Batch of 4 targets.
Target 1
Amino acid sequence: MKNYFDFFNLPKCFNIDMDLLDKIYYNFQKKIHPDNFIQKSKIDQDASVKLSTYLNKAYSILKDPFLRSIYLCKLNGIDLNTKLNLNFSHDFLEQQMKWRETLSIIKNKKDKGKLEILSKKIRKISKKEMRIIENFINKNQYNSAILNIHKLMFLKKFNIEINNAFMLMNITQ
């Protein structure tokens, strides 16, 4: 199969026309949806399911900026799982420890206000990281982009921990 950008006849770049992506997706989906192939042969039905699955996966990856950035790196030879020398700065590693310590203290005190402040801070930093990733990809600097993708992955996981803390606070109060 073609890569996802070619499949949708879109340029291989970070900034894509989302309205066009949606339009192509919905038009394509109408044509190849498995329900349209109920009266067809088993081969045609299977092909429809396969193509529909591929379409949905391609769409979900291109629609999400984070997943799209990972996919663009992969297309350019830098896979997320490739063993890279991820030299996170000492400051970033230290910051991770501080955030975890802060979250632990907040959870122990059940302080929703401070948890909200931490959550907003992490979301703000995540948006900034996404812009940095976008800039690296636009400059074809995929090794740098993948390093920041790993940073953003940490931030996303940490945000899940924050959301879990919110849920626990709501359950226990």
Note: The chain has a mean pLDDT of 92.
Target 2
Amino acid sequence: MRYTVNRVSFLKGETEVAPDKSISHRTVILSALSPGLSRVSNFLQAEDTQATCRCLQSLGLDIEQRDQEMLIKSPGINDLEEPEMVLDCGNSGTTMRLLAGLLAGRPFTAILSGDSSLNKRPMGRVMKPLAMMGAHFMARQDSFPPLAIQGGDLHGIEYSMPVASAQVKSALLLAGLQAQGITTVYEEAPS
């Protein structure tokens, strides 16, 4: 399967989210790309998705839950704020991997960390291709969180996924939206 993404300056549209954790993570992160107000219905309120929301708030997003709707006001991808503190991903590997892709193209340093369990999980599978695009990382023992990410100018790559991973693929596509040139991700089976 082949996915190709090109750099964008903004996103516009409507999304109604089924109460699904994976979709909820991605929807709130995609809302960070577009300046202005996003409305998300059926956002799954779970510890992992709340970790993503807290991290995005540290990057300058205003997030408010109202009844069955979440309101997300973003300055847009180009105006995300450098976080003043470590971004706490809790126990959410999805939060850490997707934010690594989002932050890879930002011109500042951010530190992603998690609980003791998450900090024992290697992140090399997401760090390697993002580094190939131009992001810089520091980690414990080369791939264990906390991860310090120095983002900046990215360039597109062609990358064949050695192992199917929707999280790594999503991180690469988020970074690809910020890269010069084309980013192409190949995978043996859809993830």
Note: The chain has a mean pLDDT of 93.
Target 3
Amino acid sequence: MRIRGRMYCDWDDPELDYITHEETADGGSMIEVKARRSSAGVTQLFIGVYSPDGVGVFEIAYDTRPETVTQALAWGVAQARRFVSMEATLQPHMRA
């Protein structure tokens, strides 16, 4: 279960269809990326990274992206993976 933050709640719109990518990274962090076309025809994107226990670590929403929905999803997945990788690199230093 994910504990989503305000960013997701503000982005979510049950009237719009979206495509989703979810994965569990090494270390148990969860990645969730959603892309959609708004009612105005604009590509929108949500990126969420959650700790292994479901707490939101990073959430960002884009009201507009220049890519197609599929391309935006792929871009968002790459960004989420970079964030998880960076977080994993920093964690040992943060515990010291």
Note: The chain has a mean pLDDT of 91.
Target 4
Amino acid sequence: MWLNDTCELLICMCDKLCLRLCIKTFVFRISVCYSLLFFLFLFKNLNHQIMTSTKALKLAFIHPDLGIGGAERLVVDAASSLKAKGHKVVIYTSHHDKEHCFEETKDGALEVRVRGDTIIPPTLSGSFYAVCAILRQLHLTLSMIFSDREEFDVIFVDQLSANIPLLRFAGAKVLFYCHFPDKLLTQRETTAKSLYRIPIDIIEELTTGMANCLVVNSKFTSNVFCESFATIKTMPQILYPGIRFEAYDKKVNTDDESVKILETSKNIILSINRFERKKDIVLAIRAFSMLQEDGLISAEKFRNTRLIIAGGYDHRVQENVAHHLDLNKVALRLDLIVHNIMPDSISAPPESAQVVFLCSFNEAQRTYLLSKALCLIYTPSNEHFGIVPIEAMYARLPVIACNSGGPKETIIDGETGVLCDSNSEAFAGVIASFVNGDYDREAMGNKGRSHVQKSFSLDTFINSLEDLLIKLASDNSQNTKFPIQFPLVLFSTLISLFLILYNYFDRLFL
């Protein structure tokens, strides 16, 4: 107990020291806090209590930004379901905007603790996303260890792995869920960006391999994982994400104001993706335009068809904002009539609107769109899994997707949807076939629903995940070992401390 009190006192002193010495630069402020906290961390080791399979587990989820997306949906569903099974669950995050999150995280159904958001900003002048995300996660983890003083049987970590050594050294058992290697999700347009990513990529591989249990979301991701992380010899286990069927069984609420603005008598071609370049939403717009340009459907049918592009949109994320503007320009250059529905907007599109951008949507809107749409077009290539096609198939909505990545494992080509080449011509041809009634949508929809019920239920995912967590918690062979990388971290910490002290004495005597 005395050590915890000492930690809190020194953290407070550290912050005051930064102000007193007028150390206002980002680097020195972080170095002061990081060095003192990590120095104390040498003397602290959580007592880890092993739980048996007959006893409820204490579980923590660590997710960097609890917004709206496939990864966030997985974390929220997993946490909710495990809590319903009697386990104690807490979600830790560095950012939780209650205006841009899933309902369960703001209505009290789940305990969400925001940590690691007071020292490091999300970016530095719009750059250094990865470095800031890593530092925020380390700050979150140190706050979790020293301030919250809770012991967890297993900690579920996803997206970022940099904090795994800290958790392991503290005595925790860690399950790392890899949605996709982060090193493959970044663009390296310049030599400087490539050099900048080298240490980050090394850290990702070293820290990922330190998890007690590694899990991925598809066979495709498993293969990419093994190719990308050559030094990790452990084969990750595959757990396909699932969906909560009851969340998609709700009836359309036509009294909801957010639904009313979407109501239309037109045929809806639906695209659901975050506003990110890697999702290749441009393909959807070009394919839609080709329906008219190439005469794939009649002029009358085209007038009666609308493309709705719905997706996660966060005004804090520069790419979301910039890409949304780029997509508008693409549509306008193709002479399409565009309407934008921004978050909290109550402006309904005019009947003439051909492309509607729905920037973030709620469950009521999702229910309406999945029930009303003619088909869903899913444009990302080599998508690691893709939860959206699962949602659509359960809603009896046929899916058109690229013949690569996770969709090859989830969509039965010609039966629950259509897999095609990743180009606008191929997509336009299949969309036209649906508009012209060449496919039996009812049969395809029924097949899709039964396929999802059989293979992608949340219960199947949760039962498998729970088995892994219980096994990990009760496995004595998984007790924490002193990581060999730790002396390197300690050395870098001491160097940082030396630089701080040097700066301090320099201010005193010069």
Note: Residues 1-48+482-510 form one domain.
